Amino acid sequence: MKLVIAIINERDRKGISRALLKEGFRFTKVASLGGFLRDTNVTLLIGVPDEDIDRVLGIIKSNASPRQQKAHSAAAGVGEVSVGGAVCFVVDVEKAESL
C-alpha cells in the first residue's frame, strides 16, 4: 500500500475530488497555503493499493490545470509564473488500519 500526498491548487480541488470519488478512491483533504505566492492550496492524503498508483496519479494529472499567473516581487517587479498542476509524493505504508 502507498500513501499519495497530493498538493493541488484550490481551483483544481473540485475536479480532482470528483474524479477520484467517481473511480472509488477516498481521501482526506487538508487546507494548506503555498509558499511563494501565498496561494490557497489543498493537500489530499490518499491511501492507494500499489497496483492503483498510476491510476490515481493519472486522475490527478488529467484534472490539474497548470496556468500562468501574475506575481509581484520586490526584486523583479511584476512577472508571470506557472501555477496549478499538482505536486505528488508517493510514500510506502507499512500498515494501515481503520479504527
**Separation of the first and last Cα atoms:** 17 Å
- Give the integer mean of the pLDDT values: 86
Main beta sheet: 4 strands, antiparallel
Count of DSSP strands: 6
Strand content: 35-45%
- Low-confidence segments: none
Radius of gyration: 15 Å
What is the spatial order of strands in the main beta sheet? 2-3-1-6
Order of helices and strands: EHEEHEEE
Using the 3D structure, state the CATH architecture. 2-Layer Sandwich
Work out the count of structural domains: 1
What's the CATH topology name? Answer: Alpha-Beta Plaits
Number of helices: 2
Instruction: Assign the structural class, choosing from mainly alpha, mainly beta, alpha/beta, alpha+beta, or little secondary structure.
Output: alpha+beta
Quick one: overall form? elongated
Helical content band: 10-25%
- Per CATH, the class reads Alpha Beta
